[in-house]
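User: Could you go from structure to sequence for me? I need the amino acid at each position, not a summary. Structure tokens:
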């Protein structure tokens, strides 16, 4: 168990994610910590922030040949008629959700065979994407409960539920009682052998619900799969779920805080799924460094606070910042004071004075703040597992963790990284050989504009680390969407996945209303954007509900879940940055299913496209001379036209010739990869 590594130090205080969420007038945006969000009333902050302007700090992650001026700047607003900009990508389809889901938030995606499964706060949808230019709706399943994050494993579908209104029976009427046997907060399990008719077979209830979850297939255990649960809600009453303890571990060793839950699912009897351990992977971590708002945002907050106080609003200190409180909190408290003195009607000045005297203590109790040292993380947002290498990346509030998951029920923390530029560590992605890991920072919780020109480049970005032989993480650089967005566009790093371009680390990622960005992080110190798709704001006058929640590569296409607009499917197009051969080689990687938080190891079958992709990369890096590349390409063309023994002989000869080029190359490793691909092609073996 290592001590945390502080990779960067700057600024001074942590931004309050839910405070920023609450600035949005769009109620459908995902609020990550709903309790705190309910305390705040900052709807007037967005217009104030629109006045921000100024240069962005740090590298802009642009690459040579990027369009200038950037076509994403100044796009026309609109829900379904917004202006669009693409670069090195083609939009194949844009499909709206069915009526029962159109007014609710679309969330994450999972994939099985020819289907894309899309979560929604009202349940989930199953899309047949056989024809990506015209996906069809195979099934809509109404079963409300935020966030409805989805994962699949063979015939099983798992769906997260965290809100207090989710019901065991999937009813839409919600749950009104504070304690109820009807409430679902945890993991739903469906049998999808007949994917057109999912069968609800069970659930596992947890003390803090399931904000997200991760399915882990243990290579040594074929009888079970494991699910890591990340729950961020307040702890349930033990009257509703026995065993739930809201006290800290120092006061009660059975605390439901500062831990994750591990569920074991017997594949023969998935209805018997149950929690088997609650690892305390945060043990020993203290509060990380944190940053506050930009000077412009701090000034805007001060204006909002002054206006709120002038209207008689209540305020309280929340994580070091005085903020106005919502009437949703204060009105019931005032009513209780009136009732306590036996009064009726409108609260008096004395009632208001009594509440002002005690409001800070009430807020502290609600959000878990006290006058002592700030604790470390109490849960993870996302955990990305990479079973092939026995590692997981935990994005855990104030830390990025590297975990050993070789014993699935008992993950062990290997390393931890904190960064004062980060506000909320959200998700993780490894590169294919697990020599690097990327963590995203969802600063603002997905509900605020954090890609404005005035926002620091290191805030709300990705942080890229290398992983050394001792399993230590070493910070290398940040990647942030290069195009500045408006104050009416929620924008911050969110969900994405690797694109299996051989020999390179390329990722596609969602940035909410910042759109979809594809970037190359092969050079960990200099990640650069190589493709994008973006729309204009949902609304030109205020922060509207929209933007891409997640974007993943699956069997040749990029599929994106758009919060309000539906399902988008795109594909890469060839350019000087990505060749057609590289795209064709990526398309040879075919997955049976994909849960982006369960990262598969990409393996490329032997193909002429693979060999040519490496040749294209050597041309780009100038690792081989033009003459030698011409020789290689001509030999590949001749071999492809031949067959049988003649093809094998030609390829074997070429592989040996290429191997001889490595000694004099500035990119010897890539030359050896090319030689290996040709050798595998000659022998019929699958490339690694």
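Assistant: Here is the amino acid at each position, in order:
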């Amino acid at each position: 168990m290592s001590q945390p590594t502080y990779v960067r130090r700057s600024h001074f205080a942590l931004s309050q994610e839910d405070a920023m969420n609450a600035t949005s007038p769009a109620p459908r945006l995902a609020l990550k910590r709903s309790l705190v969000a309910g305390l705040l009333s900052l709807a007037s902050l967005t217009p104030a922030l629109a006045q921000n302007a100024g240069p962005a700090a740090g590298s802009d992650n642009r690459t040579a040949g990027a369009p200038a001026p950037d076509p994403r700047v100044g796009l026309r607003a609109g829900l379904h008629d917004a202006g669009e900009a693409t670069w090195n990508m083609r939009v194949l389809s844009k499909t709206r959700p069915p009526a029962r889901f159109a007014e609710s938030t679309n969330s994450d995606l999972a994939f099985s065979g020819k289907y894309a499964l899309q979560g929604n706060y009202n349940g989930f949808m199953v899309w047949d994407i056989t024809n990506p230019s015209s996906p069809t709706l195979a099934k809509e399943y109404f079963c409300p409960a935020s966030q409805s994050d989805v994962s699949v494993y063979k015939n099983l579908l798992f769906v997260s539920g965290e809100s207090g209104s989710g019901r065991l029976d999937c009813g839409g009427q919600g749950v009104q009682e504070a304690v109820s046997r009807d409430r679902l907060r945890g993991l739903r399990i469906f049998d999808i052998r007949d994917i057109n008719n999912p069968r609800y077979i069970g659930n596992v209830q947890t003390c803090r619900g399931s904000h997200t979850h991760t399915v882990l297939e243990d290579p040594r255990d074929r009888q079970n799969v494991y699910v890591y649960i990340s729950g961020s809600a307040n702890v349930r009453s033990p009257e509703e779920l026995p065993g739930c303890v809201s006290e800290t571990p120092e006061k009660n060793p059975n605390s439901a805080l500062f831990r994750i839950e591990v569920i074991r699912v017997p594949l023969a009897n998935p209805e018997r799924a149950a929690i088997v351990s609650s690892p305390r992977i945060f043990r020993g971590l203290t509060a990380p460094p944190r940053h506050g708002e930009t000077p412009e945002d701090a000034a805007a907050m001060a204006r909002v606070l002054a206006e709120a106080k002038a209207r008689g609003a209540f305020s309280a200190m929340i994580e070091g910042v005085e903020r106005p409180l919502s009437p949703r909190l204060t009105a019931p408290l005032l009513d209780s004071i009136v009732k306590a003195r036996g009064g009726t009607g409108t609260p008096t000045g004395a009632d208001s004075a009594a509440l002002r005297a005690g409001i800070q203590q009430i807020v502290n109790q609600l959000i878990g703040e006290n006058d002592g040292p700030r604790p470390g993380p109490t849960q993870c947002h996302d955990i990305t597992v990479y079973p092939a290498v026995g590692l997981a990346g935990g994005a855990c509030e104030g830390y990025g963790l590297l975990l050993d998951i070789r014993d699935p029920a008992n993950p062990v923390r290997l390393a931890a990284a904190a960064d004062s530029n980060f506000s909320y560590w959200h998700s993780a992605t490894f590169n294919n050989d697990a020599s690097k890991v990327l963590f995203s920072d969802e600063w603002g919780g997905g509900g605020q504009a954090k890609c404005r020109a005035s926002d620091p480049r290191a805030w709300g970005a990705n942080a890229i680390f290398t992983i050394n032989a001792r399993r230590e993480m070493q910070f290398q650089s940040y990647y942030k969407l290069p195009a500045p967005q408006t104050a009416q566009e929620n924008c911050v790093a969110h969900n994405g996945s690797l694109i299996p371009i051989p020999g390179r680390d390329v990722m596609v990622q969602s940035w909410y209303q910042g759109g979809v960005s594809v970037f190359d992080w092969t050079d960990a110190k200099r990640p650069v954007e190589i493709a994008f798709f973006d729309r204009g704001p949902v609304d030109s006058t205020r922060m509207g509900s929209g933007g891409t929640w997640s974007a993943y590569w699956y069997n040749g296409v990029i599929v994106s879940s758009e919060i309000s607009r539906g399902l988008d499917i795109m594909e890469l197009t060839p350019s000087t940055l990505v060749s057609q051969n590289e795209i064709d080689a990526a398309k040879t990687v075919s997955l049976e299913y994909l849960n982006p938080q369960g990262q598969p190891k990409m393996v490329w079958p032997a193909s002429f496209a693979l060999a040519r992709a490496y040749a294209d990369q050597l041309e780009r890096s100038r690792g081989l001379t033009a003459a030698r590349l011409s020789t290689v390409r001509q030999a590949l063309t001749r071999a492809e036209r031949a067959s049988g023994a003649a093809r094998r002989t030609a390829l074997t000869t070429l592989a040996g010739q290429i191997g001889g080029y490595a000694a004099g190359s500035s990119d010897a490793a890539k030359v050896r990869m090319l030689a290996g691909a040709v050798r595998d092609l000659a022998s019929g073996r699958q490339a690694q």
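One structural detail worth keeping in mind: The longest helix spans residues 349-367.
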